[in-house]
Specification:
alpha/beta; 2-enoyl-CoA Hydratase, Chain A, domain 1; Rossmann fold; 2 domains; 6-stranded mixed beta sheet
């Protein structure tokens, strides 16, 4: 079987004996080769999909109608860590807003959450030269108290502080994309507000260890999910009035879109996505996965997402092979230090669970999930650019997938001549294992 594993801006071709492959888990309509669904080079078709969604909003008025008479309008958008096709969507949003309010003062607010600031070059790449050069763009900073307003408490008890740019406006809308999310259930919708444009204290309270450990804080789950509950509340308090959320294919092209009421449109988008993203569980001693290429594989921190998906298909005591370019390094100093200290996964888990909600340090949630995975599985990371860092964290390392498979085979120590089975999940964050 020949399978393409997304890697950076391209892919790695992997050839495996049919006898070893238990299953290759891909979204419905996607190809095992990892190719796109046919729209990647057809910007006009993607734009038409977006316009169709905006013309038929779910549960409310059109964006043009909402914008009518509004003087100040803020659009929340995704940062550099997300493959949001803003070069397609943002011009259409701006056009629709100005049809309703020609002289509106529009601010594009980049939702960084706790991530590093998006660079100027990344902004230009994301939006295109025309928008970058002519529109007002603000990059959110969760640590800048002067740019935050404290507006109460979350249902969980944590403080709620949000960007003044999101609150001090006549109309707040958000664009984003919907994909499975390993503890928020799904991305998109309310997530643009929390963690997107929230203060540091609000994000860490929402990502506390007890919530991360909750069985309902998992990919594909919204009902009973305490993290989702906080996020939805924050969006309501911010008066988020309208969303445009897209779904993308393996080539990161728009294949579907929803727009309208933040709750209802997001719920409809999640329903549609589950029809495509749900895959039936298959188990094996070895699981090979990736984060779907750039930008989601830009650092090791983000790569935990594909490991979380692989965990659901890996036999206890088995090996997860996670593939990612990691051009941006590890992605979190605290995340690195947690594992570089030499503590066992069980020790780390106990430490995280004893940490109070208000004491949650940055990146603990990612460390907590990785520690949970390491309690039952070995992890080999294929990321040649960060060999020293991977080894420093006590994780397995390989320069290539074949090398990683040889290491995994040796680790499993199966009888001579009996090669362990393999499940391949080319785009780990893009599927929900059911």
């Amino acid at each position: 079987m020949d399978i393409n594993i997304p890697y950076g801006d391209g892919s790695i071709s992997l050839s495996l004996p049919d006898s070893r492959v238990i299953a290759a888990l891909c979204p419905a309509g996607g190809a095992e080769s990892g190719t796109d669904g046919g729209q990647a080079n057809d910007v006009a078709a993607q734009a038409q999909t977006v316009r169709a969604a905006l013309s038929r909003p779910v549960g409310g008025m059109t964006l043009q109608e909402l914008a009518s008479g509004k003087g100040r309008i803020t659009i929340i958008t995704s940062d550099h860590t997300r493959p949001m096709p803003s070069a397609v969507t943002m011009p259409i949003l701006l056009e629709e807003i100005r049809k309703g309010s020609k002289g509106a003062e529009i601010t594009i607010l980049v939702a960084t959450g706790l991530h590093r600031a998006t660079t100027e070059s990344e902004l230009e790449e994301r939006f295109g030269r025309e928008i970058y050069g002519h529109e007002k763009i603000i990059v959110h900073d969760c640590m800048d108290e002067s740019a935050l307003a404290h507006i109460g408490a979350l249902p969980s008890g944590g403080e709620l502080s949000l960007s003044k740019y999101a609150l001090d406006t006549d109309l707040l809308i958000a664009e984003g994309f919907i994909e499975p999310h390993f503890f928020a259930g799904f991305s998109g919708g309310r997530k643009s507000v929390l963690p997107g444009v929230a203060g540091f204290g609000s994000v860490v309270a929402n990502h506390c260890s007890s919530f991360i450990a909750d069985e309902n804080a998992a990919a594909g789950k919204l009902e009973g999910n305490p993290i989702h509950r906080d996020m939805e509340y924050a969006a309501e308090k911010a008066s988020l009035a309208f969303i445009l959320n897209v779904m993308i294919d393996e080539g990161q092209a728009v294949i579907d879109a929803v727009a309208g009421d933040p709750k209802l449109a997001h719920a409809e988008g999640c329903r549609r996505l589950m029809e495509r993203a749900s895959v039936k569980r298959a188990a094996a001693p070895i699981v090979i996965t990736s984060n779907g290429g750039y930008p989601l594989d830009q650092n090791l921190y983000q790569l935990v997402k594909c490991m979380d998906t692989a965990e659901k298909c890996c036999d206890e005591g088995g090996v997860i092979i996670a593939v990612g370019e990691c051009r941006d390094g590890v992605g979190g100093e605290t995340f690195y230090r947690d594992f570089a200290g030499g503590k066992s996964a069980r020790e780390l888990t106990e430490r995280f669970l004893s940490c109070g909600q208000s004491e949650t340090p940055a990146d603990q949630w990612q460390s907590q999930i990785l520690a949970r995975i390491l309690e039952k599985h070995s992890v080999i990371v294929v990321a040649p650019l960060i060999e020293e860092a991977v080894k420093g964290m006590g994780l397995g390392f390989a320069h290539s997938i074949p090398e990683a498979l040889n290491i995994a085979d040796d680790m499993l120590g199966l009888p001579s001549g009996k090669a362990p089975g393999i499940v391949v999940i080319p785009n780990g964050p893009g599927v929900v294992v059911v």
